[in-house]
Amino acid sequence: MLLEIEGVTKRYRHGAAPANDGVNLTVESGQVYGLLGHNGAGKTTLVNQIVGLLKPDGGSIRISGSDVVADPGRARRACSIQPQAQVPINGLTPRQAIETLGRLRGGEARLVRDRTDRLIDGLALGEWSATDGARLSGGVKRLVSFCMAAVVPGRLVILDEPTNDVDPVRRRLLWAQVRSLADEGSAVLLVTHNVIEAERSVDRLAILDHGRVLTEGTPADLKAGIGDDLRLELVLDPSLDTIERPQFTGPHVVTGNRIVAAVPAEMAGRAASWARDLRRTGRIEEFSLTPATLEDAYVALVGAAERDSRTNLEETDVRVA
Fold it and tell me: Are residues 213 and 237 in the same domain?
């Protein structure tokens, strides 16, 4: 096992809720492992502990059997990381920035040049390879940051929100490069809140919420946990705020003019007929009825955790009263 995390807890100040609360994870070489959660779930805090920038209050972290807390320098040598924040490369071209990082990580000059060429070609960055970093778009800078982590990859490659600001075409190219890192033997820890992309890219994942691991497994494992419900997605006409839903629809999420609701599989025909009527009368612009996705599993799990938390708080209030 390349990365082993056991019982890791971290609080930023006394009495505060933990940023990480008894986290247990294992990641193997050759695996893309997703760490999924909303903003503030504790993902970046955990990453900072893995690379030795923060010391856990409790628990242990080992990389290839070495204790990260006892020897943080060794941990950093074993890892290459694409941080969440953009890497400043003003005054350098993408090629210069990538090659410089490769040499700093101990790569031989010719091999670093060849690897840089492959990454630039693989991500279609050639037209910007000689452009000063100050003139690059946010998406191109993000891709350059990935290349800097991947040019001489560590045994553990940590990618913190790697697709932020990246256009859809190059996102696909980027995921192919992420897969290549794992196929070449590195363990890849992918930190993201983009559920849809995670489903297509990871071998296993953990869902983190308020510092705790809610569940862990393959995408198929997590989707199986919500049963056979289907996913009904409606895009409302812009003039409408909402619509009345029939009783056969289950839990739903509203994002802007988009409504996503669970529908029992046996109600698929009624759901499709109802949605077609809405579209014919102009109340929705489009709809889709598909098998449940990882996003649905995520919403169900996080929603259940929040309901449990509220119930516990209410019970505490009653006891105090």
Answer: no
Q: Is 318 within the bounds of a domain?
A: no
- Tell me the C-alpha distance between 292 and 221, whole Å: 12
Residue 201: closest CA among 227, 180, 175, 225: 175
- Do 175 and 209 fall into the same domain? yes
Question: Helix, strand, or coil here: 56?
Answer: coil
Domain of 254? 228-291
Specify whether 235 is located in the same domain as 214.
Answer: no
Indicate the DSSP class of residue 153.
Answer: -
pLDDT tens per residue, range 41-60: 999 999 999 999 999 999 99
- Any alpha helices (H) in the chain, and if so which ranges? 43-50, 72-78, 94-104, 109-122, 138-150, 168-183, 195-201, 219-224, 268-280, 294-320
99-152: pLDDT as tens digits: 999 999 999 999 999 999 999 999 999 999 999 999 999 999 999 999 999 999
Describe the crossing of helices 109-122 and 138-150 by its angle, rounded to 10 degrees: 140
302 within domain boundaries: no
Element (H, E) at 170: helix 168-183
What value does the mean pLDDT of the chain take? 89
Share of the chain above pLDDT 90, in %: 68
Counts of helices then strands in the chain (DSSP H, E): 10, 14
CA neighbor of 95 nearest in space, from 122, 124, 123, 128: 128
Q: Which residues pair with 4 in a beta bridge?
A: 26, 62
User: What's residue 12's pLDDT?
Assistant: 93
Q: Is the pLDDT assigned to residue 320 strictly greater than 50?
A: no
Tell me, yes or no, whether 146 and 249 share the same domain: no
Please tell me the distance from the alpha carbon of residue 271 to that of residue 273, in angstroms, as a whole number: 5
* pTM of the predicted structure, to 2 decimals: 0.82
CA distance 146 to 98: 9
